[in-house]
Amino acid sequence: DMGDSIMNSLRWWSDSRDLRKIHPPALVQPIPPFAGLDIPVVSRTELEGTAFTEAHLRGTKPRGWRAASSIIAQCVTLVNSGEPFVYAYYDGVDKIAHERGFGPFYDAEIAAADWLVGALLSALPPGTTLVVTADHGQVQIDEPAIKLPKDLMDCVHHQSGEGRFRWLHARRGSEDDLLSISQALFSHQAWVVSREQVIEEAWLGPSKGAKMSDSVARRLGDVALVPFADVTYEDPLDSGPFPLICRHGSLTSAEMYVPFLATTV
Q1: Which among 205, 247, 204 has a CA at the least distance from the CA of 229?
Q2: What is 150-243's CATH topology?
């Protein structure tokens, strides 16, 4: 249970306060990564030791890289040493899409990622299977983020989530008004649904007809704005180093469908 705090899960802070002691990563995300297997993880060196990494990669063996070319050397070394499974993460495509959008910079990054995969495939020993996938897609947002109007915000106590999956937490007694106003304003561009609908339809798991845990349900707002159009809603806490051009978080096919490619050397 996160209480009343709205935590940025990538940075693990709220209002610039480190919440690692208040909300230990292993309690917030209790499922053992990789089913508890002790596997090597080849990822950016600077991500080691962060709370987000502790939540999702704890118990693994970090093998950091500073230059993308080191991914190849690390993976080949690990496979040759007898490791049966190696997980590698490359973030370039995601970063460029966020910062530059689709276009020449994105195309150049896709070409670089393609070279990286090809070079790794050429360097791996015979009998090794290489699997390439992604954690999400992207949509490009060309218009400014939509600011929520005053008549709606009068019903809102606070917000959570992100621009393409915005949770509105109602002021006490305003739940019905918040849903009806939100639907009137945004149904032409977003799925506007109540917390009850999200839970009943198992948008967030565990499965349709199964019960979501109370501690998870308490984190949800009262109304979700989930765009199917290429728009995003203003997030007052979205204070990254650059404005995001491509975004993800909604349930559109562009954001949900990812490649899964595999081949054996």
Answers
A1: 247
A2: Gyrase A; domain 2 (3.30.1360)
